[in-house]
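Homework-ish question, so no full write-ups if that breaks the rules, but can someone show me the predicted structure for this set?
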Amino acid sequence: MSAAPGNELRIIGFLCNWCSYGGADTAGVGRMTQPTDLRIIRVPCSGRIDPLFVLKALVNGADGVLVSGCHPRDCHYAEGNFYARRRLEVLKRFLQVLGIDERRFEYTWVSASEGQRWQEVVQKFTERIHELGPAPKITPDQMAMAETMAAQPR
Amino acid sequence: MELLDQLKEKIKERLPELDVVIGWEQGFDPLHATPLFMRTEEDVDRLVFSPLCVHNLASHLTGLKGKKVGIVVKGCDSRSVVELLQEKLLVREDVTVFGLPCTGVVSLKKIKHALGGLDKVASAEFNGNELKVSAAGAARVLPLNEIAADKCGRCQYHNALLSDVFVGAPVEAAAEDNYADVEAFQAKSPQEQAAYWRDAMQRCLRCYACRNACPMCVCRDHCVAQSREPHWMTQQDTVQEKWFFQMIHALHLAGRCTECGECERACPVGIPLLLLKRKINKEIKELFDYQAGTKIDATPPLLSFKVEEENINERGW
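A: Not a homework solution, just the prediction itself:
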């Protein structure tokens, strides 16, 4: 079920194998209804996520990117998500100058037992992306806008 | 001239125990300096130092690994040396740093703008805080603060932070850096920003001058931009591809960039690349109270963590 029926957007989710992927599984086993816009990519740990994964997805047309890992202090590898937290926070703020709406990227923590919470996260994030609409593509319109801006004196 | 003579003398003193000393010499015209690799005393006599010495010579250091290298640094360049030492990309014993006080370097782009071109420059001379240029038969006087590089207006480290030999009297002044340029750009809407970068990246030639000039880009032949494994980038000449490369460059410099501005200076099409790096530096300063290239024994913020982060609110949504 998409948040807005008939108009599915492309959201990429990077989930850690041990907590969030398990959490998503728990939500599925519990037959909780979720939006279907999210495509999940399983990674060993949130610390495995290079911020460039997220940027590559966004630059190449993803409408939103969600990263989810174990709660801090609960990392399967003891400290992977502590590093991830720093990286992802810097990345999130970096988006503020790239012209990519920073609300298109979010990171959160969901444990394997939190099926309910996973459902809420997906619901909330998908709704947010639907409010933002599809990510802007490089269209002739936008090229024209870039050209008028370039023509202005700097 | 006194400073230069002192510097030459010090370099000659240390030259016998060094393979090469890197400095600047007069370039192909009066406005351009160019890096000079000094191996003999005669080479040292060609050394110059003025606000035209814009290059960050630290970019050459990692290419000279294994040799005993001397290097002449300004305040900003010394931060790059400190950062390289911190990352253990250099051996401290192999590097001899000749530190200088610096009151700012010029931006050739600004001079070009003021003169309407850089051709036919017959002479250029610094007189205190003014640059006397005669170009195409006409003499012009340009005040240094009008033609200084942007980074110099906000410089907090005029004197070399690290030096084995410090020449001259330290400059006392230190400006505050409030990242006003980043704030101003950030105030634009995402659409405006996207349009701005689209226009800028359309001009990009993918010449990688930004990467080659960067003192912190040390991967050489293993740069992800040209690697097939991992295959981060294709050879396509699209705006996305070029823009993505700049994102890679900025993120690979997160917590490492010393804001020497070589990327922006080297860019032949004038893309404001330093802005991206300064944005990340601003956030790292705010989040972790850290400035790259100021302490050799500091721990880089992205290679460490705190169990409770004071400035990150990840439970906010």
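Now go work out the reasoning yourself. Hint: The mean pLDDT of chain A is 90.
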